[in-house]
Design goal:
345 residues, alpha/beta, 7-stranded parallel beta sheet, 4-stranded antiparallel beta sheet, 50% helix
Length: 345
């Protein structure tokens, strides 16, 4: 309460100071996820004139918070702990803490992290989602971790922001949560799994099977020794990290049959997570026959982290999270505000 009162007083008496603080914090944030980045690109991305940005860059450089090289600006060693130290304060000032509490309460989730911005409108926010997800993952790592990850563009951002864990006694083994041959290779679970392991300096196993299978193909595949070995690891996962998709977009991306697509539309599916399609009430109305993680497997997983952002994903997040009470949700301001607006309708 005292902190909130102090912030309110500062905003009334020194509004310019708060604006400067937010702007400099945002500049440091953007440099952290996009480094090295040129001044012109940074000015365009933040909606600032190059002239006003120049004075801010000069100040941050003088303070030893950034370095300016010929190929762009990078965060200095002192910059990272400063951003981390300011994170909670900036969330209080911007109202993100309140949004986190509202979402956690409305969805009855284990925890919610909201990053600033809307990834539908600002591309770099997806990287910030990835960074927040990595931070959350590391908070739950134990001595021996088996991490199952899904595919998608948001999960690719998580892999890109992964860094090695300082505690060498820990072992990280990454596995794809499901098969994924047949879609863009860059966002397949196998690719993301391998990249995440490489950046974490961990190990990985791949699952070379299609995302969708007929019953006969499924029965045959699961008996293959190489496939069964990876399936056993997936079902022993200590952590699952997954994205959330818009139902129709995901169905089309998977080249779903016209009959199933019609069924998904007819039953008003709005969200999708690892092959399960949900309606607004959080009910599973369709599932893809796939080798890998199944909904019932989540009951034995210690930590579940869902990562999704953008105002357009608000309904999908609500649908997929209604029955996933043990999940930690990483989302952005755009999705969170759209979610809260939906509650008040």
């Amino acid at each position: 309460m005292q902190f909130r009162t102090l912030v309110d007083l500062q905003q009334k008496l020194l509004p310019d100071m708060m604006l400067v603080l937010r702007r400099r914090y945002q500049i440091l944030q953007y440099i952290r996820v996009m480094q090295p980045i040129g001044r012109r690109s940074l000015a365009t991305s933040l909606g600032l004139s190059e002239r006003s940005l120049r004075s801010e860059v000069d100040f941050l450089k003088e303070q030893g918070l950034i370095h300016v090289f010929s190929n762009g600006m990078v965060l200095a060693e002192e910059g990272e702990p400063l951003i981390t130290a300011l994170e909670d304060t900036m969330k209080e000032i911007s109202g993100l803490k309140d949004l986190e509490s509202q979402l956690a309460s409305a969805l009855n989730l284990e925890g919610v992290v909201v990053v600033p911005g809307d990834s539908d409108e600002i591309p770099w926010v997806k990287k910030e989602l990835g960074r927040a997800a990595v931070q959350c993952m590391k908070g739950f790592f134990g001595a021996n971790n088996i991490v199952a990850v899904t595919g998608g563009t948001t999960m690719a951002a998580v892999a890109e922001m992964m860094t090695p864990e300082n505690r060498k006694s820990q072992r990280q083994l990454f596995v794809p949560a499901r098969g994924g041959l047949g879609e863009n290779v860059d966002i397949q679970a196998n690719t993301i799994c391998a990249k995440m392991a490489e950046r974490a300096q961990g190990e990985y196993r791949l699952l070379h099977v299609p995302d969708q299978l007929s019953q006969s193909a499924f029965d045959s595949m699961v008996r293959e020794p190489a496939v069964k070995e990876v399936l056993d690891l997936i079902q022993s996962a200590t952590m699952v990290v997954h994205g959330i998709g818009d139902a129709l977009s995901m169905a089309r991306r998977r080249k779903t049959s016209p009959k199933d697509l019609e069924n998904i539309q007819a039953q008003n599916a709005v969200g999708e997570a690892f092959g399960f399609y949900y309606n607004d009430d959080g009910e599973v109305i369709h599932k893809v026959k796939t080798i890998g993680l199944q909904l019932e497997d989540l009951h034995t997983v210690e930590t579940i982290i869902a990562v999704a952002g953008g105002a357009s994903k608000a309904r999908a997040i609500r649908a997929c999270m209604k029955e996933q009470k043990r999940t930690h949700l990483i989302t952005d301001e755009g999705a969170a505000k759209a979610f809260v607006r939906g509650l008040s309708l």
